[in-house]
Write a structure and sequence with these properties.
Layout: H1 2-37, E1 40-49, E2 55-66, E3 70-72, H2 78-84, H3 87-107, E4 114-118, H4 129-140, E5 147-152, H5 153-158, H6 160-173, E6 176-182, H7 189-194, E7 199-202, H8 204-207, H9 217-228, E8 232-235, H10 241-250, E9 254-255, E10 264-265, H11 266-284
Parallel strand pairs: 2-4, 4-5, 5-6, 6-7, 7-8, 8-9
Antiparallel strand pairs: 1-2, 1-9, 1-10, 2-3
Bound molecules: ligand C2E and magnesium ion (3 copies).
One magnesium ion binds next to loops.
């Protein structure tokens, strides 16, 4: 009886493993097709500069418009793309689309906006990364100074020489780098000061804890440390006006979060930016 049950459990377990393995393979095939068919889209989240009260940058965030499952968030397919290596072509699609949209925003007079694109550690394993990025930047005719790459601490720490060579070469072109999700990984300060990083993005999990009368020492210390190292600070995931006020007091340079705006498809972003501009000209008139 016990043996039979054991056998039964094993069977069920095995079945489930097989099923999830095959659906992962399905998903991989589907993502491959989605890339070919252009079923991915980028949404852009504005970043607000504390000092000027203006939108100074955008972060490109990928979504997958899936035929039957609707709009998929990155956490539903980026880990699989990293695992399978599909993140390499996907990453190029993202950069290429972001550069194109940057040019079109500029032509429509959206002004001078930095464009931040997330890069996975895995993308640095492609020996063609630097050459391809250079080619894409040239083809699109974008001034590299307006381009920023966001890397997580884990990406920066994992293969530092491989990563740092490419980073330095891009930094020479004028591209900026930011350290994403800061505080959630382990970065040594040696790396922070040795790599060409210009901005530190404080993770939402820390920003969530910023409250009036709260224990804000850690966030204040992160901001001071960043400034000490000559880095600018972006606070991520700001949802409440009170947090914005406090972060401003602590010296954060930029904020990004639902309080300012959710990530928006290009057409909505254009409307959002033109409303911002109108509001500003009313204020200054
Ligand atoms: P991330 O780079 O840290 O991006 C910030 C995430 O926080 C985004 O989620 C954004 O929509 C969300 N967020 C921003 N403000 C708020 C807020 O006020 N409240 C809440 N609750 N959330 C907020 P999203 O778009 O789902 O992206 C998740 C992650 O997926 C990103 O985290 C990034 O690590 C990854 N990702 C997105 N696009 C790409 C891409 O093109 N390439 C790579 N390699 N990774 C990407
Ligand atoms: Mg990011
Ligand atoms: Mg982040
Ligand atoms: Mg994140």
């Amino acid at each position: 009886q016990a043996k039979a049950r054991q056998g039964c459990t094993w069977y069920l377990y095995n079945e489930r493993v097989n099923r999830s393995a095959s659906s992962l393979a399905d998903l991989e095939g589907e993502l491959r097709r989605a890339l070919r068919r252009d079923d991915l889209e980028l949404h852009y989240q504005p970043r607000l500069c504390m000092e000027t009260g203006r939108i100074v940058g955008l972060e490109a965030l990928v979504r997958w418009r899936h035929a039957s499952r609707g709009l998929l968030a990155p956490n539903e397919f980026i880990p699989m793309a990293e695992e399978s290596g599909l993140i390499v072509p996907l990453g190029y699609w993202v950069i290429s689309r972001a550069l194109r949209d940057m040019q079109s925003l500029r032509e429509k007079g959206a002004g001078e906006l930095h464009m931040a694109v997330n890069l996975s550690f895995r993308q640095f394993q492609d020996s063609q990364l630097l050459a391809t990025l250079q080619r894409l930047i040239e083809e699109r005719g974008v001034d590299p100074h307006w381009l920023e790459f966001e890397l997580t601490e884990t990406a920066v720490m994992r293969r530092s020489d491989q990563v740092s060579g490419t980073m330095s070469a891009l930094a020479k072109l004028g591209v900026r780098f930011s350290l994403d999700d800061f505080g959630t990984g382990f970065s040594s300060f040696v790396h922070l000061s040795r790599l060409p990083i210009s901005l530190l993005k404080i993770d939402k999990s820390f920003v969530d804890g910023v409250t009036a009368g709260g224990d804000n020492g850690l966030v204040q210390a992160m901001i001071s440390l960043a400034h000490e190292l000559g880095l600018e600070v972006v606070a991520e995931g700001v949802e409440q006006a009170a947090q914005l006020k406090l972060l401003e007091g602590f010296g954060a340079n930029q904020v990004q979060g639902y309080l300012i705006s959710k990530p928006l498809p290009l057409a909505e972003l254009e409307k959002y930016l033109s409303q911002q501009n109108k509001a500003e000209s009313v204020v200054s008139a």
